[in-house]
Amino acid sequence: MFGIEAFKDASIAGGLPKALMDIGGGAAFHLMIAVFAGYVAFSIADRPGLAVGLTGGMLASSAGAGILGWYYFGFLAGYVVKFLNDIIKLPASMQSLKPILIFTALWYGYCRFSNGLSYQSAGCANNGSSFHLVKNKWAM
User: Fold this and answer.
1) DSSP E strands, the chain
2) Nearest 5°: phi and psi at 127?
3) How many Å apart are CA 131 and CA 22, to the nearest integer?
4) Total-model pTM
5) What is the pLDDT of residues 64-84, one digit of tens each?
6) How many CA atoms lie within 13 A of 107 on its CB side?
7) Which of 75, 101, 103, 115 counts the most CB atoms within 10 A of its CB?
8) How far apart are CA 78 and CA 39, in angstroms?
């Protein structure tokens, strides 16, 4: 087996095609998801939204939310940070902590507090009809 299917056989070339597929098709693609959501948030909230969007994108990627989840959490992170940036006033000496530490900690706390319900709903919307009616109960 060679060519485009070479990664399926781990015995070819000492497993090099499989290793390259894992790096390029796995880890690098998940990183691009986070970068995409980060720059969606950056386009809305400017510099403070970048770290928050990257965090939301990585969480959406790990939850399997799909492309709708990336858009959803990029926009949500951007508008939440824009709102928080307007209402949180800090002294000038602490102003630089807002984009990297404060907003990211609040966003991550929100994501963990909501227990991933938003991620699951975005993943189900992305997958189409993931909810099925089973014995009068909704089950995934």
Assistant:
1) 132-134, 137-139
2) -85, 0
3) 31
4) 0.67
5) 777 787 888 889 889 999 998
6) 35
7) 103
8) 9
